[in-house]
Design a protein that fits this description.
With about 425 residues, the protein is an alpha/beta fold. The protein contains 18 helices and 13 strands. Strands 1, 2, 3, 4, 7, 8, 9, 10, 11, 12 and 13 form an eleven-stranded mixed beta sheet that branches. Strands 5-6 form a two-stranded antiparallel ribbon. Helix 9 packs across helix 10 and helix 17 packs antiparallel against helix 18. It is globular and about 70 Å long.
Length: about 425
């Protein structure tokens, strides 16, 4: 796997010392870029966790900096890195791993760990979440707010349509058939309720990976230097997505907004939606009707990409800052805190032992839907991640939106996206 060589040892530490900010009152300051991209009182929770950590660790000050969406946060983090004043740590997309390595911006956790306890900690996370966290025999990211895509459905609307409210679609064919029964039109053909919405803005590539995984095909290789956007199975998956609107007419035409899809679900404008498990608490708080959560329907197989954010530690931080950051990351990912974070936000608790805590057991007993994403992990695949990931992802997103708006056929859209990805990744091929 090609990537820039890691510059370790004294040279890296010397560079980090020069960039260390003055710590208030002698405390080691850990600046912490955090992306706010999903609804809910996330900033309040993060502020509370930072304050609790500081109470237990008097010599460390954690400074959360809310940096916008994931895309905005990585731009700000890399800009700060190039100017010599990056955050000490940041939560960024797990799929940004190759980009951060290529920019020589982060240190592998292997360089920070000491002894068997730290090694055991690395092994405590779900293997599915490590697909986008490790490469080349090193661990570059630590899972924190991770997710899969799941299907939410309105049980009342299922019942009104004569469907079993406890039985969501389990296959692609059932998804279309149920969505057809759930779509309401007046005599003039105007739709007041759609059967399903799969968002195509914000993270279209990620939602699309649900379809491609279910059709038995990967979008990229493990080395992050090749994509398969024009494979026949990829084109078939896109055709299925396009057909939901154009052929079956059970989904709104054109681009469906990521941010407003949950609102459409709350307002009964759509009976089913695909979105992140990170919206689970948001849905539970705002849906004024009984709802269900299910694994995504199967095509040739079940499946979803993992998603969400990892902790990374930036190279241009001082040794004591890195040590403090590691302490904070280990603290915030303990089984009890991983469980509480999952309960408070809807993200998937990232380690199996978190699900064995009394708090999580009680939560799942009262709200079984919380365990759906966990149960989907054996079917999960790595999120799309390559070198030059932002550019490669944009090529795919542009192709998806061209097909969904009808400006290109699925075949042509994927052929063009693949050609652009090949051009971008050429320098990284061995």
């Amino acid at each position: 796997m090609r990537r820039r060589a890691f510059i370790g040892g004294s040279a890296a530490l010397a560079g980090g010392l020069a960039a260390a900010p003055a710590a208030a009152q002698g405390a080691v300051e850990v600046s912490f870029f955090y992306p706010v991209a999903v609804g809910g009182p996330i900033t309040r929770i993060i502020d509370g966790l930072a304050a609790d950590f500081e109470k237990e660790n008097a010599g460390i000050k954690v400074k959360p900096i809310y940096a916008g969406t994931y895309q905005e946060t990585i731009v700000k983090a890399l800009t700060a890195h190039k100017s010599g004043t990056p955050p000490v740590t940041s939560v960024l997309l797990s799929s940004d791993m190759f980009t951060l390595i290529d920019e020589d911006a982060i240190v592998p956790f292997d360089e920070l760990m000491k002894g068997p306890d730290d090694a055991a900690w690395i092994k405590s996370f779900y293997p599915a979440f490590m697909f986008n966290s490790q490469t080349g025999g090193r661990t570059w990211g630590i899972p924190f707010q991770r997710s899969t895509i799941v299907l939410y459905w309105n049980k009342e609307l299922f019942k009104e349509a004569g469907l079993d409210p406890e039985k969501p679609p389990a296959t692609w064919d059932e998804q279309v058939a149920m969505a057809a029964k759930l779509t309401k039109r007046d005599a003039g053909g105007n739709v007041s309720q759609w059967g399903i919405q799969v968002p195509s803005s914000g993270f279209p590539y990620w939602l699309f990976q649900g379809f491609t995984t279910q059709n038995g095909v990967d979008l990229m290789n493990q080395a992050g230097d090749a994509t398969y956007f024009d494979a026949p199975e990829v084109v078939q998956a896109l055709q299925y997505w396009v057909d939901l609107s154009r052929k079956h007419k059970v989904q709104p035409p054109g681009i469906i907004e990521w941010g407003t899809t949950p609102k459409d679900f709350f307002e009964r404008k759509t009976a089913m939606m695909w979105t992140t498990t990170g919206n689970l608490t948001n849905v539970r708080s705002n849906a004024k009707f009984p709802f269900g959560v299910a694994m995504l329907p199967a095509g040739k197989r079940r499946g979803s990409p993992t998603g969400g954010g990892n902790f990374y530690v930036f190279k241009k931080s001082a040794p004591e800052q890195r040590e403090a950051a590691l302490k904070f990351i280990k603290w915030i990912t303990t089984p009890e805190r991983a469980a509480q974070w999952g309960i408070d936000t809807g993200y998937v608790a990232v380690r199996p032992d978190a699900w064995e805590t009394p708090a999580m057991k009680k939560y799942v007993e009262g709200f079984p839907a919380a365990a759906v994403a966990r149960d989907q992990l054996p079917h999960a695949v790595a999120e799309l991640s390559t070198h030059e990931n932002q550019r490669v992802t944009k090529a795919l997103n542009d192709g998806l939106q061209a097909a969904l708006t009808g400006t290109k056929s699925p075949e042509q859209a994927m052929k063009d996206a693949q050609a652009e990805a090949v051009r971008i990744l050429r320098p990284y091929k061995k």
